[in-house]
Amino acid sequence: MKLDKAGPGGPCWTELGTSDLEAAKRFYTNIFGWRPETDPRQEAGGYTIAHLDDAPVAALTPLYQESQPVAWNVSFWVPDADVAVAAVRAAGGEVLLEPMDVFDLGRFAVVTDPGGAALQLWQARSFPGAGLFNAPGSLGWVELMTRDPVAVAAFYTSVFGWTVHASESYTQWGIEGSDFGGMVEMGDKFPHEVPSHWLPYFAVEDVDRTAQDCTDAGGTLLMEPTTVGDGRRIAVPRDPQGAMFGLYTAGEE
């Protein structure tokens, strides 16, 4: 895992849209030791930033629309949100939310890739994104689950200029050769109703122990702890409200 800071074109933030904000605060505080702080401004709509010490690492939010699924979302840093939205359209993506200002923090848009996976675009102003990566309790890897790998590979290389490192078992995304994420083709083992999506992975010291903590706190395991090709342990839990996320062993290369 090589993601250690936010940078242009790469993942910079992740946020959970949930049906029960208070329950989500308790669950993730128990799992990762986060310190959540909810923005008191009415216009912030309950937006809650989770911290590790003083570093912001993720956000938890209520659902803002009836059609919004309970899910983790990944934001990617762009120099200009309006230019990036134009590039998304030109590359065959769709725009769900046109660029809008978020206080003095930055400019924000929501789009989908040609395979239907939603992602967020973030043009940073006073808020660059997460202040900690690839450390226990923080974001360190992002994974695209898709049914159309050829089309989406062309899309992301066009929009963000990512490098693509493909092997027989796994495809990795990178910026100038430094990989920060991967892609998995959704085959027959994935139920048809599961849409293409981005999945954030959080670093932990012990995947097996944290996976057990998740189930003890009312979550379930979609993928039991397992060892992958590089010897790293990973798992995919689902929180009590239904949002999926990944775990991996921190501090290993």
TrEMBL record:
Domain VOC as annotated: residue spans: 10-124, 138-250
SUPFAM superfamilies per the UniProt record, alphabetical: Glyoxalase/Bleomycin resistance protein/Dihydroxybiphenyl dioxygenase (SSF54593)
Gene3D superfamilies: 2,3-Dihydroxybiphenyl 1,2-Dioxygenase, domain 1
A Pfam family of this chain: Glyoxalase
InterPro entries named in the record: Anthracycline_SecMetBiosynth, Glyas_Bleomycin-R_OHBP_Dase, Glyas_Fos-R_dOase_dom, VOC_core
Taxonomy, superkingdom: Bacteria
Protein name per the record: VOC family protein
Organism: Streptomyces xiangluensis
The organism's taxonomic lineage, starting at the top: Bacteria, Bacillati, Actinomycetota, Actinomycetes, Kitasatosporales
